[in-house]
Each structure stands twice: as structure tokens, then as C-alpha cells.
UniProtKB/TrEMBL annotation, chains A, B, C, D:
GO terms for biological process, alphabetical: NAD+ metabolic process; NADP+ biosynthetic process
Annotated source species: Extremus antarcticus
Region (Disordered): 189-209
PANTHER family reported in the protein's UniProt record: NAD KINASE, NADH KINASE POS5, MITOCHONDRIAL
Keyword Transferase carried by entry: yes
Homology family: Belongs to the NAD kinase family.
Keywords: ATP-binding, Kinase, NAD, NADP, Nucleotide-binding, Transferase
Any GO molecular function: NADH kinase activity
Pfam family, one: NAD_kinase_C
HAMAP family for the chain: NAD_kinase
Protein name: NADH kinase pos5
InterPro entries per the UniProt record, alphabetical: ATP-NAD_kinase_N (IPR017438), ATP-NAD_kinase_PpnK-typ_C (IPR017437), NAD/diacylglycerol_kinase_sf (IPR016064), NADK (IPR002504)
Length: 442, 442, 442, 442
């Protein structure tokens, strides 16, 4: 890899020309399709068995920025953040969702990228190296949904703003440090810094060419540790007709060409009675044929199959236990079941679960939602949702480096006393007010 | 009252002519408005402080029959039941809801009654002496909803068929005994029986005239105890604009002339996020100005304010305690609250509770449902639901006879070991499977 | 009653001599038995139907002070409080529990009272006009236990110190205002004040003589509202052998002469497996013979029958609903039941509940505790705890004055925005952290 | 391995002499220490990823029988079972706990074994090849406790009798088939049967010699599948003084020589207030130094750290979720916490959890129990229980054979429709009455 660093200077010079050569390119939206292919990060097993160390084989180039809508604080932060990335990491191409790009591109004096053709989800998963979100958990869920058809999701760096952020741990005012740490993860350390300001905005000569870590403009990289990653496992979800054929998914979760393959969810899939205040009858089956068994036919407002990540979302409100994201499992949580004896279940992640709309619901449609996004078309009697935890391959031993397939690599916050730790316990206390003590001053 | 019984025979003769004089009247739907005014029953305090003894000042005449729809078993039972009432109690006028009358009247060779004008709810409460239902709890709720604007509801005799009947305790095969017992409650006991079959179908000379107990056709009345009544208290519900003006209710709960007065619910009023899988923000206030206090602003799928009767309905599914119908209280139960620390509350029945749609819901409409019937129009930010338990006046001392104002007088099942007892404990075990024991043989 | 006020001045003069005539009487513990008989307060129904107005027919004289042990802050406060009462209301006799009197009497230069004979509980209920507690809920529970055999409990004025006080609402720094308000409740208002310091420490000539409101030393009484009272209903508890004979209670709940009559609890009665980690089998019966029904035989760590007051105590921790103290009811809450389908129940206060130790427990003893005090001797197979809500008679109409029988008259906090309101809703929020919101700033 | 089978016949002849040579050996208890060393089974990964196939390298010889006490049905079954094993598998040595051996040995006309020296637990884990239990879950827990100090536990074959058996799935009437299947698991299939009755009771020539599968007396082995094993992971538990030194465990969990090492629990470790009805204050820490974090200080009746196996035991009663035994996790479940916001947690099995007795408990001792067995000596302020899931190594790929270290290998029931399946889902329904439907007919 050292080879890459050597050609640093030369490349930077050309890179400059890419971005600033022509004012014509400014305030412009270019097609994401034109960017070079994605850089797949590697991960290294750490001694803290729970977290993995991020390792870029070459620096990330295509950064997707996802923001919460209709929030001026977020909007202001976005501009500051993008300008910082652009000036400090000039090699980086800034990508937005198309509608966002249209709203914001005139704020920047450089071109931004967005998927300009139809198959936006497919493009994201081919091109995006890193996603960064500004907003709350809903923003992270939305970002993840853009990769709902992808077995390999780029790392997500999330800043919580405006609303409760249980999933995204970074404060916005840490953005410079946070971004730098992610950027250099895997780079030979310390990066040699150059003092020559002229050469500091290096980038690749042309899209697709090998890229290396740039010197961060005007600053030495210093010594930095790799970012730590918490792999959040997802659900794999298929929808089926009573005759066994697949039903299509709807955007933002859709495959291209209306393919009806499985999609992935970060929090949960929900079946719910919807607007009509009458109960849903749902049969729950465990396992896959020929080992499939009926667990129960249940009458309820709805059902959730949730990931451990989702255990602090809707499942929590429905009375489910709180499950650490690294417990390899699925939660089956009923919503207002018409039974005194339905207790939430935690099953192994590899357990196939089928939720079948019972015949007794007759005309009634049962609504299905994924990560808080409702499918326009509800499910009718006989239709099924089939769910299983996604399969994840990880490096097995400390120090081993590997590709990760499966899961959403979430960059955990570093710094302070609990540097590089998993912040889950802290979040229980500070955000969920877990076991909040009785008494006056609480 | 003995005066009434003396003229028994004469009246019967004329009564016959009312119903059978002309074949032209058969298979006909007549207007409920033509029937004589309602007979208000009295109640007597019993030594079993929980239950009241039913006392008709004169025999009930106008019986409203409410059935579960689309159920052939129920339909068959209805015909049998109506024919029995008609032949054994020929004085009685059989009333249906209009759409039911249209479906069933051709099965009978005598006229049936239904509200043929608009103000059906108003008519029911002016005319109906007794309601009898065939179906499940939903049927009883529907029957009660026809009296949702009435401070004084006629007694309800309910037969459970087809579905779980937690509210209606009688089995259909007990219908003869059950009906007779209700009919004669308050009659001098034993009624003198006549053996003359010709005279056995007595009734009133003309609508509105004083009526007395008929000899039940071909049978001596024997000695019977008064029916026992469990008073089920209701909620009083008003809907309000943010400017304090009232919103109208919708059928079946509507007042005549689109009056926006309070209505009554037997189970609960529900605020719910509806079809959109996003949380509702609702502020809950306790008490009425100037003593009103904010309890909390809560984020949840929804909220229930429930009667004790409703404590075994939706509130149960949402984790509420089971409250005996005679505990004079209201339940405030959240549905999937986004909080670890929202515990269901039980408040005194006379506590005014206000649920205000919080401004933060912005455009989103929150759905409001009463006893399982959803209002077409949802509530917007600032709108309020105001709820309080209805006021009920009852006789205070054992043996005292009084009018009852408020509550739904529900006729409890008699016979067997626990004759005249409140069957609530039994229902917990046999229907709700309360504390169902672990183990093989269940 | 005006007669009483007229002889004010004369009486005061003699009263002085009672207390200060001889230094020999200082630092002395006198027998509570020597004090005059108790003054039973009356209550008046208020427009705020929930709370009653306290009305002394003549000023309270014998004040029992109950404090939390082993707490120096409480101890310091106690001295300040007693000295204030003594100097401002010199007619008042200060009573302590005997062991407390022995610890504290040397701090005072006047005699204090305590029960010096055996039957202390009997004495308290004959002599005490008002109880005042310094400490937490445990202190209030203890104070109530001293009246566990009394159908009529004197009002309790509680200051919370040191630990969470959900039951006692006053802050200690309000003690002067609080005490004065209680003291003058029912006095003609405004009391005529005299400026003559010599006459300001009036009291009764001799114990037993009629007493009247003293002018509070050196101060005009001004205009004060009556104190507001929240009546907290208790449980009535009996313990029975399998042969139907009663078992005795143990101190502090014991009757005199080891009588085995019912006792009263403010929070709850608890049956529990105790130290052995094996389940208890308990049969629960509802009603009294011949209408008694078996609710269930349950296997659990234990069971609670709780008052609404106790609903925020142990029952809360066991998953019970929060029930407002004015809901006239009993809670049946299981502790760790070996069942998926045991839901807490709320029953009418007049429901007799029997908890019978099942034969299957064989040798094992089940522990029984009342308000957190464990009976030394556990219960064996066949033994029963029988519980029912105490009967309470209250004035029925606004403005009506009456004796109250039953319940613990708890003086609610006045002042501030919610003057004279029931502070229950406030306590839920400030102390129990009810529906504590998620998010950063807590 | 085929070598072993070849010398079958010769060995059998000598083996016979071991057991029947002398009547002097009958009705005798011999020392378990005299038996040959244990045969460690292997396991093979199956296509049903959840279950492992049992593989004996040579036939099991030393069978420990554990029974429920004081149950005549169990006692009768035990005799029948032992006599069957003895006559059909004459090579097998029958082992009992010492007190059981003393009670039962006179029923048998052959010697039985028991640990006659002190270190019984150490002996069991050196000698026992297979444990078989007759009784309920308590019996299985007791059997597991005999291996509480062993990293490698022999397989357990459990017959449920008398009480609910959620852990033991076999019915006693299946004992012949069940035992045979376990016995031959791993044998070349089909075993060659000999028709020579004289040679059918083969056994080893002398203790310690190589042994092979015997022909089951008078019967051909036919073709049998290997038994399927569900590995139930345990907790590793240490008790510590406030100064960091270890506290000893007590029997049946004790190590030899009062060593204070960790022990293993199958269900849970419990901290509880015990007999005194006052709350326990416990600080919960997650992780191990230097990454240890305080989760919370909680006030409760107690706390459970439970395995997934234990999730259907005490944790269930305390409101915990039901966790499948193959979810590699720990449950932290509070018992009656004095908080509205303590939700049960599910943590990765490798999370170290520390429960520290808070200083505020002062003199009070907190009781500690393991799998339902209470330690005589409670824990005082400052003392700690440290818990982590045991580490388990398993074969990674289908068809691979390996030793298992860690976990209790539990033989699942075979036969019928769901042959060789994990019966957990079935148990939820049939035993725990999971989601038992409302309605009349149960
Ligand atoms: N009653 C409830 O609790 C409901 C919860 N939801 C949850 O909302 C999610 C969608 O989120 P939004 O689009 O933002 O909807 P939203 O605007 O309705 O907010 C959902 C809330 O859940 C929080 N949240 C989301 N994921 C979380 C997680 N994994 N852990 C902890 N908190 C989490 C968010 O911070 C936000 O406070 C769904 O996946 C579902 O889990 C949706 C509907 C009802
Ligand atoms: N998740 C839930 O538990 C939901 C419950 N409901 C309840 O359904 C009621 C409307 O009933 P339907 O029109 O029949 O709707 P439905 O056909 O959806 O059935 C509701 C179920 O609740 C039972 N039920 C109704 N009132 C009851 C009571 N007081 N005690 C015990 N069980 C009771 C009925 O027997 C039926 O099994 C609503 O008032 C609401 O309480 C409505 C929606 C969801
Ligand atoms: N796991 C639990 O929650 C347990 C609760 N208790 C409760 O403790 C009571 C005895 O109190 P202490 O002698 O002070 O014992 P304690 O010193 O163990 O404290 C009990 C706690 O309960 C609170 N408390 C008591 N009564 C209350 C009420 N009515 N509403 C709200 N909070 C209340 C107290 O403020 C204190 O925080 C018992 O009557 C029982 O209700 C007793 C044992 C266990
Ligand atoms: N309130 C409760 O639920 C309590 C439960 N226990 C449990 O009892 C266990 C000890 O058992 P025993 O000595 O038989 O005591 P025991 O005679 O008190 O019975 C405990 C009950 O728990 C069942 N059980 C035990 N382990 C189980 C499991 N893993 N899954 C499902 N059910 C299970 C048994 O079948 C029996 O019904 C402890 O490990 C603890 O889990 C102990 C005390 C109280």
C-alpha cells in the first residue's frame, strides 16, 4: 500500500484541476453514475471483541450525505460540513439524494453528485464509499433504506441533531475530528504531511484511477487510531402471495426493475391493523419447510419482527426487552395482543419467521411497514411476510483483516473516557432514562 | 300497582286485535315512532350490594333486537327467538334497526318496527324498554352505541353467540328462561295463571294505554325472582376545536340535528396514530379549569381512556390492569408509549381528563375511535377530547327502589350455583384464561 | 361552639401554670394515660369533591410526634419543631413513642408524654388528636401502624425529610405555616387576637376540661382556610387458622390483650416465599361465603393485596397499575407469578379477598408482612389471610359536616398555584418520574 | 474405530464375570472412584444448524441416575429403568448420589456405585459418561449442579415425571427407545447383531480397558440415528469480597478443597432481599476493567442474571422476555424494581456483569442463590457477584466432528413428526400456554 502514498503529490495536482478547472462546473448536479466504483473497506478484529477496526485499502472518495428535512439547524450544519469536507479533502465527491441535491446545490461553488437516472438504490450501492447523516435516528434509518437491497453497506458516520439520536452517537461539533478519523482509518500512520500549501488539494487524475490519502489541507494528520465499527445486523424480508409468488417492495426499499427479491431492514418489519380499529389475525410460523412449525395464531393490533438494533425502537414501546445490538438474534414482539399470555420472544438470528395474514381477516388489509415506512399496498388474507436475520461474515480472530458481508457498519464515537467503546450502555442511561431514580431532584 | 294486574284479562283480548287483526299488517315494517313511549324500569338495592334488582312498573312492551351481522347461526337463532317472544308475549312489539328490519321482516307473519325517520337514536331512547342482543361483545357495544346520546339506557339482555362474549353472559339455549325472568321482574309473584288459552294473548288496547303483565301463553309464570342488574358506567366524551368550540360526533354516536353534545361510550375512547407508522404527541391534562393540571405530554401510538368495563377490552391488550366494573373509575392506558416509565393509571370516575393533540404533530391527523368505531374525520393539532365518567345515581339502601340515571343496566345470568352473582370472576377464568396454569394437560 | 371561644382568656391563664409551674416537671416523661381524652375532628365536604375540610370542634391538644430513626437531620428538625410548637402553642402536650421519648426528653425543658404502660396502641387511639411525622413514607407507615387497631385515626401532618416522600407532601421549612393551619382549622375566623402577651399562653385549667383555640403566641392568627384532608382508605386484615380460628397479630399492629381482631394497613398486606427460593402456592378466593368463589390457585413469589395508597409502593414494583387514592378499591397484584397470564386486578373496596396457603406448600412457611413489617411467625398450609377494604362513612353533600369513621386523614399541602389541591398528579411527575421523556437533557 | 467392534465377543465374555461372578457383590454400594475414567463424547455439526449429533468414541459405561426425591411414582420408575439398563446393557455401571444409593441399593441384586469419599463433584466429572434424570426441571438443575465446577459436562437424558418438565422433554414410557438411541450414537450402523444369547451380555474385562458397543440383549440394534443434542450454555459465577478476594461457594456447587473458583449455573444467579421486606440496593456494572461501566444502581427486591435456558424460569416470572437457548446471551432481569423504567436487558453472552451490594444496605445481608439453591451466607455491603457466559467451543461446519467444551449437552426428544427437532416452540405452547387463546373451550 505504501506505493499509493508515494504518488501522493502528483495526483493531488491533477485532482485540483478536476474540481476547480472550470466555473461552468460549479453549482451543478452531476450524475452519480459518473463517479468511480466504490472502495470496499476492510475490518480488523480488535481486542475489544465487540468492535471492529475500520481499514480503507485506499481513501474513501464518494461520500453520500443524508440529512433530516425541513430543519434549518440541520441545513446550516450541512453547509458547514460539506464546505469543510470540500476544502480539507478536495478529492472527495459529495453525493446527495436527488431531491436534496436540487435543493442545496446552488449553495456550493463546486459540483455535487446525485443519481440522475432511475435506479438510484442500485447506484448508491455501486458507488458510495461512506454515508454520513445529519439528523436523528429517522435519518439513519432512511440512509440505511437506500442500501436496503445491498448485501454490503458502506460505513455510516452519523451526527445527531435536532432529535433524539440513539443510533447516531456523534455530536455535530465533533465533525472535524470524526470525519478525519474515519477518513484516515487504515492509512499508514502518521501520514507524512507536506507543508506546501499549493499541493494540498490533491485528488485522482481521472475518475476510476487509484487514489490515496490526501494530506488534509493545511494540517498534519498526526497520529490517529482507526475508527471503531459496530456491525448492526439487519433483517432480510420477503413478501409473498398466498400462492408462493413474491410481491414487490416499494421505494425507498425497492430493487431495480421491480425485482421482488428480499430487502433488508435495520430496525424492524411491522404488520399492523392500520387505521381500522379492529384486530388483526396473524399466524406465526417458525423455521422453514420441512421443519416449519406453527408458533401460534395471534389476534393483536400487530406484530413486530425486530433486530436487536430495533429493540430500542418500536419493540421497546410494545414491551419488548432491550437487546444489545451484538446479540445475534431476532425479536418477535406483539403489539396489543388480545391475550394475557403473549410474551415477547428472542430467537436466534438464523430462525426463519413467517407471519401469515390469517383467512379470518377476510377483506381487511393488514399494513406492512419497514423501518417506519409503510407500504402503500397492504397485505390480504393468505399473504406472508418471511423474515430471517441476514447472514454476516466477520473476521474470526484478533488482528485478522477481512471483508465484511452483511450488516450496517456504524462508526462509534471515540474520545473521552470511554474511547472507542460501545456507547450502548451510556445511551440507555442518558437517552432512554433507563432505571431513572425516584426522588426529588432526579 | 295491583290495579294494573286486575284488568289483565280485558286488556289481553283487545291486544290480540292489534297484532293479528289484519293480514295486511304482516311482513310489514312499521315506524318505531308509532309505538307507545318507553317504560322506565326501577331498580331495588339488594343485599348483594353489587347488583340491583330490576323492577318494571308495568311490563316492557317495545323490545329492540340487535344482532351480529353476516352470521347464519345468529340469524337462525334470531328467528327462533323472535317467534318465541311473539307467540309467548304477544303484547310485545319487536323492533329492529332499519337495515336489519329490511333484511328480516319477510320472515315474520306479523309487523316489525324500525325507525323510519332520520333521528333513529333519539327514537330508540324514547321508545325502547329493553334491548336484547345476539352476537358477541361487538354486538353489545353496537347496541349501546344506539343509546350513546341517552342519559338513561334501557336494560340489555345479551346472548353470546359465535364469538367471545365477555360482556354478555347468557347462552342462547337459555333464552326462554332468561327472557321470562326479565319480563316478569317486578310483577306480583306468582302471577295468577289462567288456563283459558283463548285469553292468553292479551295486550294493550291502544298504544300508550296502561299495560300489565300478560300470562305467558300456555304457561304459568311460576315463581320467579327479579333479574339482577349490573350497572356498567360509561364515559362521557366531548370533542373540541382548539378555540373551544365543540366538534360534532358521527353516527352511530351522533345526536340529532348535528348537535355537538357529549356522547357516552361503554368501553373506551381511543386516540391513535392510525395508518401512518409515526408517533402521536398528546398532552394529557387532569381536572378541569381552574384546577386543571398537565399530567404529561406523551409520545405513543395512542391513548385510551377506558371504563372498567373496557378494562378487559383494548386496555387489557395494551397492558392495563383488569378493573372490576363496579370500581367507580377511569383507566388511562397508553398504547406503545415511547417511554420506559408510562404506567397505566386508574383515576376516580369523576376526574375530567383532557387529551390534546400536540402542536408538534403538525399536519398529521390523529384518529379518534369510540368503542371500536372510528370517526371519519381525525383530530388536528390543538383539538381536544374531553372525557369524564358519567354521573350515576343509584338507590342508597337495601330494599330501596329508585330510578337509575346513568349507566348501562346489564342483566346478569342467573341459575346454577352462583345464581344472581356477578359473573365477572368466572369470566376471567373461563374466557380470559386468567392465570392459566402451566403444564401438560392445560 | 362560640361558647368555647369566649372563655379564652381565663383559660389561658390557668393553662400557663400547668406547664411551667415547677421545674421538677422538666426533662421528664409523663404517662400518656394522664392526658385528656382525644378531640375527634369533624370534616366538611368541599366543592372540590375529592378533599374534605378539617374542622376541630375545639383545638387539638395531644400531638404525637413520630420521627425517622438514626437520622441527624431529622433529629435536629424535630427539636426545632417541638420547641416551636411548645412556645407558640403552649397548651399542646407533646407525645412521643416511649423509646423516642427516652432518647429525646432531656433536650426539652418541659415534660413530654409517652405511653408508659403496656397497651400503647390502645392509648394512642384514646388520646392522640393529631399525629405529625418527620421522615419518609416509612415514617408515615409506622405512624399509621400505631393506629392499626383503631377505626378512627387522628389526622396526620407529614414532613418529608431525608428520603422520598410520596405520602407526605410538606417540606420541613413550611412547618410553621402548616402547623398553624391545621391547628386553627375550624376555629371562628379570624380569631380575635389579643395583644396582651401575658395572656397569650392560655390552656385548659385541668386535663379533661374544655379547651379552646389559643392565640398563637405573639401573633395574630390572621385569616386562614381550613386544612384540606385526603382520606386514605385502609385494608382490614384478619389471619386465620385452617380451622377458622383467628391468629394474633404482632406489634406494632397488635391489639391489647392479644386480641386477635382485624387490623388495618395503609399500603398492603404481603404474602411471600421469604428467604427460600422456592415458589409459594396460594389459593385466592373472592367474596365471602356463601358467595365465595375461587379466583385461582397461583404459584408465585408472593401476593399483594394493596390499597390505592399502596399502589405506588410495592404493587408498583410488581407491575401493578397506579391507582388514585380516591378510587374506592383494592389491588390484587402477584409477585413474580409462574404464569404468563396473571394480570393485576383492581376490585371494589368492599370485596372480601381470601389468600389461603395451599396444602402443596407442606412444611414451608409463607411469610406475611403488613406495610413492610414482617410477622415473625409465618403462615402454614391451610392458614388464611382475609382482607377487605375498611368501611368509610363520609359526609355526602357539599358543606355538610360529619364525623369520619375509617381512613387515615392526611393533611395535604396548601399554598402555591395548586393550593389545597390533591398533589397526587404532581407527585407522579416529580417523584416517580412518570413518563419521563427520552432525550439528552433529562 | 472398527477395531473396537471386532473384539466385541471376547470382551463380552469376560465382562459378564465382572458383574455376576459373586453374590457377595450384590446389594452393595461401591466407590465411584473405582470406575474407569469417563468417555468424552464428540459432537457433529448437523444440517439443522441448531442441534448437534452425539458421537461416542466408545460406548458410555458409567451412568449417573438422578431422581426427584419423595415421589413414589418416580421411585417405581427408577427401579424399572435401572433394571432395564442392567439387563439390556450389562456393561453399564449404575451410579447414584450417595444418599440415594443408600436408599435404593437393596432393591438391586447387583452393586451400584456412589462417591464414597468427600470430593463427590470432582469424582462425577472424572467418571460419569452420561447422566439420566427422572423428575422435573428441578431434578435436571440438581444434576447439572453436580457438574457445577466442570467445564465439560456429560450429556443429560431427562425424563419428565411428576412435575412440569420444560427442560426435560422425554416421557418416561419412551425410556427404552431413548436410552438405546443415546447409547448407540456414534456406533457403526447397523451394529452387527449376534443371535447367540450366551454372548449377549458382554462387558469390559477390567475397569479401564477399551470397551465397545454391546449387542443389546436379545435384540438387534437395527438402524438408529444419532441422538441430537441441544447445547445449553451456562453462566460462570464468582463471588468476591469488597477487597477483591474470592468467597467460597457452598455445596452442591462447591469445588473440592474449598477452592473459591468460579462455578457454573444452568438457569440463573439470583440476588434477593430475602426474608426482610425491605429493598436491596445493588450497583450493576457492565464489562470488566478498564472498560467497566456502571449501568445503574438499582433498588429492588432482587436481580437475576439468567441464561437463555433460565429465561423460562424465574426471569419469566419477573417479566423477562423468553429467549431461545441458542441465542448466545445473558439476561439481566430485575425483581420488583422500585423504578418505572427498568426494562429487562439481553446482553451478549461474553459480557461480564458485576452486581455489587451497595453500601446503603448497611447491615442487611442480601441473599444469593444459584439455580434455586440459596447460599447459607448472604452477601454484605461491598461484596460482588461477577457473572459472564461460559465460553463454548463447537464444531464450525456441517459434518465436522469435535469435542465440545462448555455447555450442558441436553438430549432432545426424537420420534414423531418433528423428529430430532428442537422442541422449544412446542414447549412454549404445550407447557407455558404461550398466547393461550381467549374463549370458551380453552
Ligand atoms: N410507538 C412507537 O414506538 C413507534 C415507533 N416507531 C419507530 O420509528 C421508527 C421510524 O423512525 P422515524 O422515521 O424517525 O419515525 P418517528 O419520527 O415516528 O420517530 C421514531 C422515534 O423512534 C426513535 N428510534 C428510531 N429507531 C430507533 C432505535 N433503533 N433505537 C432507539 N430509538 C429509535 C427515533 O429517535 C424517534 O424518536 C420505526 O422503525 C419504528 O421502530 C414507529 C411507529 C410507532
Ligand atoms: N388490540 C386490541 O385489543 C383492540 C381491541 N379493540 C376493542 O374492540 C372493541 C370493539 O369491539 P368489536 O367491534 O367487537 O371489535 P373486534 O371485532 O375487533 O373485536 C374486539 C374483541 O374485543 C372483545 N371485547 C370487546 N369489548 C370487550 C370487553 N369490554 N371486555 C372483554 N372483551 C371485549 C370482543 O369480544 C372481541 O374479541 C373496542 O371497544 C376495543 O376495546 C379494538 C381494536 C384493537
Ligand atoms: N420491591 C419493592 O418495591 C418493595 C417495596 N416495599 C414497600 O415498602 C413499604 C414499607 O416502607 P419502608 O418501611 O419505608 O420500607 P423501605 O425502607 O424498604 O422503603 C420502601 C420504599 O417505598 C416507598 N413507599 C412506601 N410507601 C409508599 C407509597 N404508598 N407510595 C409510594 N412510595 C412508597 C418509600 O418511600 C421507600 O422508598 C411497604 O409497605 C412496601 O409497600 C417493601 C419491600 C419491597
Ligand atoms: N417466582 C419464580 O418464578 C421463582 C422461580 N424459581 C426458579 O426455580 C428454579 C429452581 O427450580 P426448583 O428447584 O425446581 O424450584 P421449585 O420447586 O420452586 O420450582 C420451580 C419451577 O420452575 C420450573 N423451572 C425451573 N427451571 C426452568 C426452566 N429453565 N424453564 C422453565 N421452567 C423451569 C420448574 O419446572 C418448576 O415449576 C430456579 O432456578 C428459578 O429459576 C425459583 C424461585 C421463584
Amino acid at each position: 500500500m505504501t506505493q499509493a502514498w508515494r504518488c501522493l503529490r502528483a495526483i493531488r495536482l491533477t485532482a485540483t484541476s478536476r474540481c476547480f478547472s472550470s466555473t461552468a462546473h460549479r453549482r451543478e448536479i452531476r450524475d452519480l453514475a459518473d463517479l468511480p466504483a466504490r472502495v470496499h473497506p476492510k475490518v480488523k478484529e480488535t481486542s475489544n471483541h465487540d468492535l471492529l477496526a475500520l481499514q480503507w485499502p485506499s481513501p474513501p472518495r464518494n461520500i453520500l450525505l443524508v440529512r433530516k428535512d425541513d430543519d434549518t439547524e440541520v441545513q446550516t450544519a450541512l453547509l458547514e460540513y460539506v464546505n469543510h469536507i470540500r476544502s480539507s479533502y478536495p478529492d472527495i465527491a459529495i453525493v446527495f439524494e436527488r431531491y436534496v441535491a436540487e435543493q442545496v446545490h446552488h449553495n456550493f461553488d463546486f459540483p455535487v453528485y446525485a443519481p440522475l437516472s432511475e435506479n438510484s438504490n442500485a447506484l448508491y450501492q455501486e458507488k458510495i464509499d461512506l454515508t454520513s447523516t445529519l439528523g436523528g435516528d429517522g435519518t439513519i434509518l432512511h440512509a440505511a433504506s437506500l442500501f436496503a437491497t445491498a448485501p454490503r453497506v458502506p460505513p455510516i458516520l452519523s451526527f445527531s441533531m435536532g432529535t433524539l439520536g440513539f443510533l447516531g452517537e456523534w455530536k455535530f461539533n465533533e465533525y472535524k475530528r470524526a470525519f478525519r478519523q474515519v477518513y484516515v482509518s487504515g492509512a499508514p500512520s502518521p501520514l507524512k504531511s507536506t507543508d506546501d500549501p499549493d499541493t494540498s488539494s490533491a485528488s485522482t487524475a481521472k475518475p476510476g484511477a487509484l487514489q490515496t490519502w490526501s494530506n488534509i489541507k493545511g494540517k498534519s494528520m498526526g497520529h490517529t487510531r482507526s475508527s471503531r465499527i459496530l456491525m448492526r445486523n439487519r433483517l432480510r424480508i420477503g413478501l409473498f402471495h398466498s400462492d408462493g409468488h413474491r410481491l414487490p417492495h416499494e421505494p425507498p426499499f425497492a430493487h431495480r426493475d421491480h425485482e421482488c427479491e428480499d430487502i433488508f431492514a435495520l430496525n424492524e418489519v411491522l404488520l399492523h391493523r392500520g387505521a381500522l380499529p379492529h384486530l388483526a389475525n396473524i399466524t406465526i410460523l417458525i423455521g422453514s419447510p420441512p421443519h416449519q412449525r406453527t408458533l401460534t395464531t395471534a389476534i393483536a393490533d400487530g406484530f413486530l419482527v425486530s433486530t436487536p438494533t430495533g429493540s430500542t425502537a418500536y419493540s421497546l414501546s410494545s414491551g419488548g426487552s432491550i437487546v444489545h445490538p451484538l446479540v445475534n438474534s431476532l425479536l418477535l414482539t406483539p403489539i396489543c395482543p388480545r391475550s394475557l399470555s403473549f410474551r415477547p420472544l428472542v430467537l436466534p438470528a438464523n430462525t426463519p419467521i413467517t407471519l401469515r395474514i390469517d383467512g379470518s381477516n377476510r377483506g381487511k388489509e393488514i399494513e406492512v411497514s419497514v423501518d417506519g415506512v409503510r407500504r402503500q399496498q397492504g397485505l390480504k388474507a393468505g399473504m406472508e411476510v418471511r423474515v430471517v436475520g441476514e447472514e454476516v461474515t466477520k473476521p474470526g480472530e484478533i488482528g485478522q483483516v477481512a471483508d465484511v458481508v452483511g450488516g450496517v457498519p456504524s462508526i462509534v464515537r471515540s474520545g473521552g473516557a470511554a474511547d472507542g467503546e460501545d456507547h450502548w450502555v451510556g445511551g440507555l442511561n442518558s437517552l432512554l432514562k433507563f432505571n431513572y431514580p425516584f426522588g426529588e431532584d432526579g
